[in-house]
Specification:
Shape: globular
Number of helices: 11
Order of helices and strands: HEEEHEHHHHHHHHEEH
Strand content: 5-15%
CATH class: Alpha Beta
Radius of gyration: 24 Å
Distance between the termini: 69 Å
Number of strands: 6
Number of domains: 1
Helix content: 40-55%
CATH architecture: 3-Layer(aba) Sandwich
Strand order of the largest sheet: 1-2-4-3-5-6
CATH topology: Glutaredoxin
């Protein structure tokens, strides 16, 4: 019986061997870099390969109509560049006004991937929520102006419908309230604006490629730069 049992064990091992040999090679599956997002030391959010040879940074305002146009025109093709791993894109909020500040702070409450989705959503619906800001009554504007900044930002987000957009991106009402009341969140956004000023940013959108400011504020001007072959060393992490 012992010999028979040993034979069955041997047969079992032999039968299992081909299955192990046929295990899929996971390393051969290409990475979809459009699913890889992370916060950056500069305070922005990066989408794509952190070692991409072409690193594009956009300084943007959520109330900027040119930024919204760039998002609509660029993203379909830009996402293909990002997916390949050749290009990464980092967004750094450059706030221009109180409504922009409320939208920026709230968008940054989202998880990194959802930050990009929410930013795209805010651009696509800019005419709606920014239109509500334009339509605020004198009494509502006065109510916002007399409050301390965190409370003012929170009330602004409520009045112009930003909390509803945030909810579409996984931010609960309680999370939105906590985030908008955070002095640290507000300070980080303003510090990012100050750092951009020191780099020479004076409007939106402004672009930086591999650590150098570049001319152009529309997709037709940026697109050819992303088709180039990067210079040697351009893909080093951290520029």
């Amino acid at each position: 019986m012992k010999r028979l049992a040993s034979a069955f064990v041997a047969i079992g091992l032999l039968a299992a061997a081909p299955a192990a040999a046929q295990a899929p090679d996971m390393s051969a599956i290409p990475v979809d870099w459009t699913r890889q997002a992370a916060a950056t030391p500069e305070g922005g959010f990066r989408l794509g390969n952190p070692d991409a040879p072409l690193k594009l940074v956009e300084f943007l305002s959520l109330t900027c109509s040119h930024c919204a146009t760039f998002s609509a025109e660029a993203m379909p093709e830009l996402l293909e560049h990002i997916r390949s791993g050749r290009v990464s894109v980092e967004y750094r909020n450059y706030v221009l006004n109180h409504y922009d500040l409320a939208a920026a702070v709230l968008s940054r409450c989202a998880a990194p991937n959802e930050y990009f989705a929410m930013t795209t959503h805010l651009f696509a619906r800019q005419d709606v929520w920014a239109g509500r800001a334009d339509a605020l009554t004198p009494a509502q504007r006065a109510e916002i102006e007399v409050r301390p900044t965190p409370q003012s930002v929170a009330r602004t987000a409520e009045l112009i419908g930003l909390k509803q957009i945030a909810a579409d991106h996984g931010i609960t009402p309680a999370q939105a309230t906590r985030c908008l009341a955070s002095a640290d969140g507000l300070n980080q956004v303003m510090a990012m604006r100050d750092a951009a000023d020191r780099l020479g940013v004076d409007g939106t959108p402004t672009f930086m490629l591999n650590g150098r400011m570049i001319g152009g504020a529309n997709w037709a001007m940026i697109q050819p730069l992303l088709a180039q072959t990067p210079a040697a060393g351009a893909g080093e992490r951290g520029r």
